[in-house]
Amino acid sequence: MIDFRYHLVSIVAVFLALAIGVVVGSQAVAPNLADRLNKLAAAEAKQNKALYAHNTQLKNQIAADQAFAQAAEGSLLRGLLDGQRVVLVLAPGADSTTVDGVMTALGKAGADVTGQVALSSQFFDTSPATEEQLKTTAATAAKLVPAGVTLPHATLDPQISGQQAAAQVIAAAVVTKDPLLPTLTAPQSQQILTGFANAGFLQINGVNGNAALAGQATMAVVVLPATVPPAKTAVPFNLALVSLTQDLQEASKGALLAGALKGSGPRSAVEAVVNGSAGVTLTTVDNAETVTGQIIVAQALRELLNPHPTPSAYGVRPNAAPSPAPSPVASPSVSPSSSSRKKSKK
User: Fold this and answer.
1) Alpha carbon 221 to chain centroid distance?
2) What value does the CA radius of gyration of the chain take, rounded to a whole number of Å?
3) Structure confidence by residue, pLDDT tens digits, 184-213
4) Pairing of strands 254-258, 219-223
């Protein structure tokens, strides 16, 4: 009979042989493995260095392009929007740098900025209570619109019925097609906007710190949030913003959507327009935080003054016309309309 000590010695011998095999094998393989790993690491380091150099080169190129755009901005924009009045409508979270840059470009293009209408987060709330409050406020405001003034009418969507009712009246209050024949007086426009402001749906930022807009504008720029909305609320938020822009487009000589690159990506209103999911054709600019994009905002507005403009997507994202995009000629000077000339003869 084989005793326990024999089994124990056999087991120890087996494990000892395994250990010796591992040591001998590792000594034979280690140099080759280490050499291979060192070569891979060196190749990766070389590739990383090349990518870093290329990235630095691209940054320098972008900086140079921006410097050139800033230097040429005045020459590129001079006279494009002479005689036009532009209002900025800001979504909650709109980037102040983008807004300031767009206003600067509009000024260099010869436009007069009437002020800003800053929408609150509450405006985009789709709870039943807020929807009803928006409709009630809009119905009250609509009574201030003079008889004969037709409100814009975007295709109704049950998700945002309150926002659409409000957008119709807000658009009628802030823009007109004819600067010489405004559809509302400044007090009427202010009273409408004040009603929405008192309800917590917007804030009015006039020129030079005034609490009122400088009359109705002839064109509008709607500025997106600096970042895309959360996935849960993105669809109704974008629909409401697009619908408002559509109403501004209908009630004025032209309106467009503009945003910074981060705010114009997937789940944004710009993306919804460009990919067709919004079901609306509008002009968009996706890089308005850059000087180049701000120049394009002014140029795109000028394009919308053409007799039969074609809405386009401008910027750097897929399906957008690459920068520089439109290169229009200077805007013709505003002349009195036939109806205003007839009135002057009376």
Assistant:
1) 10
2) 31
3) 999 999 999 999 999 999 999 998 888 899
4) parallel
Would you state the pLDDT for residue 112?
A: 96
Tokens linked to 238 = 């974008």
pLDDT, average across residues 282-288: 95
Tokens matching residue 214: 């400088």
Domain boundaries defined on the chain: 1-77, 81-332
Instruction: Dump pLDDT digits (tens) for 50-99.
Output: 777 766 666 565 665 556 555 556 667 889 999 999 999 999 999 999 99
Give the Cα separation of 263 and 248 in Å (integer): 21
Of 10, 77, 133, 147, the residue nearest 327 (C-alpha): 77
Is pTM beyond 0.85 here? no
Task: Quickly list H helices, the chain.
Answer: 4-77, 96-108, 128-142, 161-174, 186-198, 234-251, 269-274, 291-304, 338-345
* C-alpha torsion sign, points 39, 40, 44, 47: positive
List of residues 6+ apart from 137 with CB closer than 8 A: 166, 195, 196, 199, 201
Cα-Cα end-to-end distance for the chain: 134
Question: What Å distances lie between residue 19 and 24, 25, 32, 327, CA to CA?
Answer: 9, 10, 21, 77
Q: What is the Cα–Cα distance from 167 to 212, expressed in whole angstroms?
A: 18
